[in-house]
Amino acid sequence: MTSTVPALGTSTAEGSALQAVLLDMDGTLVDTEGFWWDVETEIFASLGHTLDDSWRHVVVGGPMTRSAGFLIEATGADITLAELSVLLNDGFEQRIGRDLPLMPGAARLLAELSAHEIPTALVSASHRRIIDRVLKALGPQHFALTIAGDEVPRTKPHPDPYLAAAAGLGVDPTRCAVVEDTATGVAAAESAGCHVVVVPSVAPITPAARRTVVASLEEVDLTFLRGLMTQMR
């Protein structure tokens, strides 16, 4: 767990139940879920294997150990998990070095949260080296805390990353709003007791208790998040 800027205070507007906002990265703030699949496809092609497009739904949003392990087993490729992890991180880092598009509404939402001094954390299954590269585009000043997948004992779909983020900000996870894009991330956030806003990226996700599904981050602002928390109290 690494803090990128000094933590902001946890005060919120009077009467608001919202204490903090915890944001996923890939597919939520930056349009990179397709990048991972492109890199995986290229690497396995170099190893003599073609990835089945249906596997994309299996690996999306998960920790690298799970995704890479699944692809090795599914293809029978002659490569170790450690070797593949290095290739994947290297390939992804090169890819985002060429282009890193933000999701619609991401820049506006981050600016609004910062302007109102809402404690905000970036919570990703990606490794620290990747997060630090992406932060340059997102703006590290927007986050009081960042949690990487290789910095917690268990990453998504386990609740550990979101519990670590809430603890690091000094807030109650049940009074945090999480924004996610995959079932894996949603499972982690819900297991931590957080309220979840889902902007599905690759696979559809249905609404449920303490879970609101929207089409785009452009539908999400501070008023929306505070209202959501008030409704679910």
Let me know the largest β-sheet: 6 strands, parallel
Strands of the largest sheet, in order across it? Answer: 3-2-1-4-5-6
Low-confidence stretches: 1-15
Rounded mean pLDDT is 88
Shape: globular
Number of strands: 6
Structural class, judged by helices and strands?
alpha/beta
Spatial gap, N to C terminus: 29 Å
Radius of gyration: 17 Å
Q: What fraction strand?
A: 5-15%
Helix content: 40-55%
- Count every helix, treating DSSP H or I runs of 4 or more residues as helices: 9
Element-level helix/strand string: EHHHHHEHEHEHEEH
What is the strand and helix layout of this fold?
Elements: E1 20-23, H1 33-46, H2 56-59, H3 64-75, H4 81-98, H5 106-115, E2 120-123, H6 128-138, E3 145-147, H7 160-169, E4 176-180, H8 183-191, E5 195-198, E6 211-213, H9 222-232
Parallel strand pairs: 1-2, 1-4, 2-3, 4-5, 5-6
Helix pairs in contact: 1-4, 4-6
What would you note in describing this structure?
- By secondary structure, this protein is of the alpha/beta class.
- It is built from nine helices and six strands.
- It has helices spanning 33-46, 56-59, 64-75, 81-98, 106-115, 128-138, 160-169, 183-191, 222-232; strands at residues 20-23, 120-123, 145-147, 176-180, 195-198, 211-213.
- The chain has a six-stranded parallel beta sheet with strand order 3-2-1-4-5-6, with helices on both faces.
- Helix 1 packs across helix 4 (81-98) and helix 4 packs parallel to helix 6.
- The protein is globular, with a radius of gyration of 17 Å.
- The two termini are 29 Å apart.
